[in-house]
């Protein structure tokens, strides 16, 4: 009996564990023109493409290299992350990086394991990684493939509320002053609705302000042009300015609740653009914005109309048919439309004429019948004694 109970208990536990199972997935990225770039980076994978927090103990990253022979890997991984543990330049932490050596290299493929990645990060969580660089000191390296196996699927990552860090880097930083916007980020680059009370924004910039200045050189702005929720919206427009909770001459931290208070609601689904602007204290040049501990959502891809392919095929068939027809036999579309309309119009007129002719004919027949009856009656007279009509 105990064995039976143990078996059923084991089956129940297996059922419970399967209900909470997270399914692994493989991610294949195809770098385009991935040559040596800034800081010896051959190729960079942003967390928006593949978040490190989706890695499992069975995850392996394979980097395919072209142009290098031998048994020694010409590339290594560089993990870019937000370091909470070593607070040096800023109270909320600072950006940092660490190298990961390949565990093996063969036939142009360098393999990096989960154990190597976690060891390199030390006490820092995978969710702090905002980018993975493929780096090399050789200038003739081309990265033609970046594959990660056995990672948590994007759907399961969203369902299990996994977090990540997002960096938005200004490729062409611009200096602004006089309440200008040094950096503008669209919803396609970062969706601020992925934030909650555990999230925060860090702006990194350059300016000439003294470190102990009590006035912040920067502000964070949430913009919407068609908001239907915020009580602060005027004709759908919201321009919400948020001051930082702490700042230096290089970094500024913005709090989620301050954003919600400035915008009028915690529902940021209508925010389409965010800015980092100056406060007219000193010119600034914003280079990066970091969104810390934000949620991951499966990107929504717009679906094409179901009949689009059918319509395209029909157009192609029509075009091919027209291309083989003699020019003389082709009639303009407008003429075809007019002739069909005229035919329909003529048919309608004929039907109306027939109806009118029928009505007139009926009237004529009825008139003749009445005329004959009256004519007959005019040739007879009523005999009172016989109680009937008799001929005159």
UniProtKB/TrEMBL annotation:
<feature type="transmembrane region" description="Helical">
    <location>
        <begin position="352"/>
        <end position="374"/>
    </location>
</feature>
<feature type="signal peptide">
    <location>
        <begin position="1"/>
        <end position="24"/>
    </location>
</feature>
<keyword id="KW-0472">Membrane</keyword>
<dbReference type="Pfam" id="PF18259">
    <property type="entry name" value="CBM65_1"/>
</dbReference>
<feature type="domain" description="Carbohydrate binding module 65">
    <location>
        <begin position="42"/>
        <end position="132"/>
    </location>
</feature>
<feature type="compositionally biased region" description="Acidic residues">
    <location>
        <begin position="303"/>
        <end position="319"/>
    </location>
</feature>
<keyword id="KW-1133">Transmembrane helix</keyword>
<feature type="domain" description="Carbohydrate binding module 65">
    <location>
        <begin position="176"/>
        <end position="289"/>
    </location>
</feature>
<keyword id="KW-0732">Signal</keyword>
<dbReference type="InterPro" id="IPR040877">
    <property type="entry name" value="CBM65_1"/>
</dbReference>
<protein>
    <recommendedName>
        <fullName>Carbohydrate binding module 65 domain-containing protein</fullName>
    </recommendedName>
</protein>
<feature type="region of interest" description="Disordered">
    <location>
        <begin position="302"/>
        <end position="342"/>
    </location>
</feature>
<keyword id="KW-0812">Transmembrane</keyword>
């Amino acid at each position: 009996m105990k064995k039976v109970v143990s078996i059923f208990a084991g089956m129940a536990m297996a059922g419970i564990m399967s209900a909470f199972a997270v399914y692994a997935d493989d991610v294949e990225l195809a770098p385009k023109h991935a040559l040596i770039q800034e800081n010896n980076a051959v190729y960079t994978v942003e967390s928006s493409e593949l978040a490190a927090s989706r890695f499992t103990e069975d995850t392996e990253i394979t980097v395919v290299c072209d142009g290098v022979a031998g048994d020694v890997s010409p590339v290594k991984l560089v993990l870019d992350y937000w370091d909470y543990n070593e607070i040096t330049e800023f109270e909320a932490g600072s950006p940092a990086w660490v190298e990961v050596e390949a565990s093996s290299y063969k036939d142009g493929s360098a393999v990096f394991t989960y154990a190597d990645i976690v060891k390199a990060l030390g006490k820092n969580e995978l969710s702090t990684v905002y980018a993975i660089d493929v780096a090399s000191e050789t200038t003739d390296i081309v990265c033609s493939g970046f594959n990660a196996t056995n990672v948590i699927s994007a759907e399961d990552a969203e369902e299990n509320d996994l977090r990540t860090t997002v960096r938005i880097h200004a490729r062409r930083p611009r200096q602004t002053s006089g309440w200008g916007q040094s950096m503008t980020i669209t919803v396609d680059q970062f969706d601020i609705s992925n934030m909650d009370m555990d999230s925060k924004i860090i702006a990194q910039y350059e300016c000439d302000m003294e470190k102990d200045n009590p006035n912040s050189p920067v502000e964070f702005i949430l913009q919407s042009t068609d908001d239907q929720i915020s009580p602060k919206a005027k004709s759908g427009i919201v321009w919400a300015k948020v001051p930082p909770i702490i700042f230096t001459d290089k970094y500024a931290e913005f709090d989620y609740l301050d954003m919600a208070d400035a915008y009028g609601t915690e529902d940021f689904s209508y925010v389409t653009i965010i800015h980092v602007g100056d406060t007219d204290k000193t010119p600034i040049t914003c280079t990066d914005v970091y969104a810390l501990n934000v949620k991951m959502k499966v990107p929504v891809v717009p679906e094409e109309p179901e009949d689009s392919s059918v319509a395209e095929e029909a157009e192609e068939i029509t075009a091919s048919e027209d291309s083989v027809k003699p020019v003389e036999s082709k009639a303009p579309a407008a003429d075809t439309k007019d002739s069909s309309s005229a035919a329909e119009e003529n048919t309608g007129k004929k039907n109306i004429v027939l109806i009118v002719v029928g009505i007139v004919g009926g009237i004529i027949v009825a008139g003749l019948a009445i005329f004959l009856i009256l004519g007959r009656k005019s040739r007879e007279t009523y005999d009172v004694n016989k109680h009937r009509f008799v001929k005159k």
